[in-house]
């Protein structure tokens, strides 16, 4: 049934001229297999390692063809549903201060918890749990979905950490958290973490810093579950993939230099329409998505669960430079698009076959960047893929069968696209 559904969606896409635009000359090279419910990867800028986040509470580092456990907090992580260890961000000055941040759901309290650790020296492949500092703990709904989890620093800003928080669940945001300025759920936060101790400060230029009706940590409102977002590492523009309810998926955009304060509309709006189910509506000042798409079974559908990605700024694929890559975790499809200064698409291409075909990846959990800006795709089934230039008909290296619980590194991170 699923294969027939994919075929039907593919035929509809061709009818809408998706197939009239050739895909980029890309290849996907499997870098590693065997991770346990992998959700994300990243690396400090300029670093030659990869850090892979597993839902159950481990961060593994890949270096010199091997993996080691960088951090293990599995005993403290709640993993039911969409809970887990969900996010990782390295301080922009990690190479000198060794600081990094994680986002996880606490097993004991259920709260979204942001912690900082310090690695000394920063080149070490193991973090010291004793350096843990709690930055913020946010009370969550008892529902097991919509916990957000992405963390990041905007290029050029070394002080302020952005934190995505889903509306906390259940369907249709029953407590209307995303529109409630006195609740942190359903928001994008921005906090100053430049201090050396626990806690944080409110940046004086946050958009609601003088408001009595909106908490001062809030950078943006009206988000359902921005599981993955990113900053363009060249321009600083902000891209947010916000997962929809039953009807539409959306990508939101904030230009570089924007002062924040946008309300992206959930639960009043789902994508570019009023939310069905009796909760939809409108109000002045809402910011609509730059792109949205309907769910499977509808004309123009790409899937049912958007996975926000990155603008490619890597060193090895000139044709991809400046294009935004994103995907869908239900249909396991990948796309790229060029865009205008306001983020609106110019043209879009499907990249699934070239990037993911034959890789064995299933459930497209996330995209990620390495220290040089190369782009990767992470599968929930434990597969990590590097986006590479086309091998121009050359045979790809065979992908050995994954061994449960055993990570296999299949590429040299100095050049994961090189023939093996």
Structural summary, described in words:
By secondary structure, the chain is mainly beta. It has one domain: TolB, C-terminal domain (Neuraminidase, 6 Propeller), CATH 2.120.10.30. Helix content is 5%, strand content 34%. The chain has three helices and 27 strands. Strands 24-25-26-1-27 form a five-stranded antiparallel sheet. The protein has a four-stranded antiparallel sheet with strand order 2-3-4-5, with no helix packed on it. Strands 6-7-8-9 form a four-stranded antiparallel sheet, with no helix packed on it. The chain is globular and about 60 Å long.
Summarize this structure briefly.
With 420 residues, the protein is mainly beta. Helices cover 5% and strands 34% of the residues.
